[in-house]
């Protein structure tokens, strides 16, 4: 199993939207590294849901329920972009803020800090476990 983090602006598509929908097509990603990360996702992989921009924090946990397929929002040919489908698993008891993440020495090399503009990134198992612990989940 692999672990990932996806970022979304809460005012555009936040955790509340995601859970109300019950399943999301994670599409519209237009960065090659993020696309490669989407392509590497496998059924059952665990995905941390991060609210970016306003009140940045990891707010919940999702799972991959459909592996990469051609992004349905693409109109050009050939289609270089992919989408995956995610389902919510649980909201965090306590969101883990960006300030908490930056203050935690064990998270000093987390992709969220090193590549802050990337919207889909891998998370190491030890980072994943620590984020769950910090969330009281």
UniProtKB/TrEMBL annotation:
Organism: Spirosoma montaniterrae
Pfam families the record matches: EVE
Gene3D superfamilies assigned to the protein according to its UniProt record, in alphabetical order: ph1033 like domains (3.10.590.10)
All copies of domain EVE, residue ranges: 2-134
InterPro entries: 5hmC_binding (IPR052181), EVE_domain (IPR002740), PUA-like_sf (IPR015947), THYN1-like_EVE (IPR047197)
The protein's name: Ubiquinol-cytochrome C reductase
Signal sequence coordinates: none
């Amino acid at each position: 199993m692999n672990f990932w983090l996806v970022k979304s602006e809460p005012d555009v598509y936040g955790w509340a939207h995601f859970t109300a929908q019950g399943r999301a097509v994670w599409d519209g990603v237009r960065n090659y590294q993020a696309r490669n990360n989407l392509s590497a996702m496998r059924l059952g992989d665990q995905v941390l849901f991060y609210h970016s921009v306003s009140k940045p924090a990891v707010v919940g946990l999702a799972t991959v329920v459909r592996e990469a397929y051609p992004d349905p929002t693409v109109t050009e040919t050939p289609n270089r972009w992919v989408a995956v489908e995610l389902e919510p698993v649980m909201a965090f008891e306590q969101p883990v803020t960006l300030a908490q993440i930056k203050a935690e020495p064990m998270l000093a090399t987390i992709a969220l800090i090193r590549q802050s503009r990337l919207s889909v990134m891998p998370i190491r198992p030890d980072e994943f476990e620590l984020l769950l612990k910090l969330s009281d989940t």
